[in-house]
């Protein structure tokens, strides 16, 4: 069935146990991922990734994995990304199974109205489908307010507008920024805090860019020599560390949905060209290299590592330039493999 826009938040935060399959699709792939992550949190489950190609080869795989208990009795959610019509038979088997232990979450890009996967998700009572459109105006503010509430942040309309502008209405960046603000303010749903302009001045997405993006790109591109040179130029204990981490995080969040489109069958050149004015022409070759070097699965792992690093740096009382350097060099070595 189609998700009800008015009750979508409740459906994600308090999932219906009768639902076995969730499909997030649409042009705003970052937005779909934010919603899927929110559902994962609502389920209190760990992500268990299954490739769409594996489901195509073995349609019984989804039902088997969804019916299996976690190794230590922990709750799981089966995560399929990217998903398309190749998984229809697997989803049909899942929805027809006698019983399951874990729901399945599938992320797709834009689907045609004739898509078999879309029709199945929209018409079956055990499935929920939601389409994500690029954020604009009030939609962005509404998302920020909802996500902020889940993080324990009270956000006024003016502050929500500023957060949306700094994040260029990118849902994944917005979610990352709000999590960062909540961590800094010590906010939680049990102990809510007001997100004010002063906090955004200190930590916002457009704070302290400088050469931060270039240093992160050198790591992602595997340019060990140039990266080592840049790291030596950093001021020991200086203020560049957190902006570099945030720039790296935003680049990874930018790459992830693009790489998912490539793995679903789109050509690399077409994906890069579709970025239009969002990509500076001098960065086209770099973007092509990064999308060739990093798979969707590796980008997902990298996003988690970078987020963990940012949390450590923000909570540490000592300068984090050594920890940053070690992580960036590790990323550069991984890019060369």
Mean pLDDT: 85
Count all strands and give the number: 7
Strand fraction equals: 5-15%
**Percent of residues in helices:** 55-70%
Plain-language structure description:
Helix content is 57%, strand content 8%. The protein is an alpha/beta fold and 337 residues long. The protein has three domains: 5-131, P-loop containing nucleotide triphosphate hydrolases (Rossmann fold); 137-203, Helicase, Ruva Protein, domain 3, CATH 1.10.8; 212-335, Zinc Finger, Delta Prime, domain 3 (Up-down Bundle), CATH 1.20.272. A five-stranded parallel β-sheet has the order 2-3-4-1-5, with helices on both faces. Helix 7 (137-151) packs across helix 8 (157-166) and helix 7 runs parallel beside helix 9.
Q: What is the element layout, followed by pairings?
A:
Blueprint: H1 8-13, E1 21-25, H2 29-43, E2 46-50, H3 52-57, H4 61-67, E3 76-80, H5 88-96, E4 104-107, H6 116-123, E5 127-131, H7 137-151, E6 153-154, H8 157-166, H9 171-185, E7 193-194, H10 197-203, H11 212-220, H12 224-233, H13 241-263, H14 268-273, H15 284-293, H16 296-315, H17 321-335
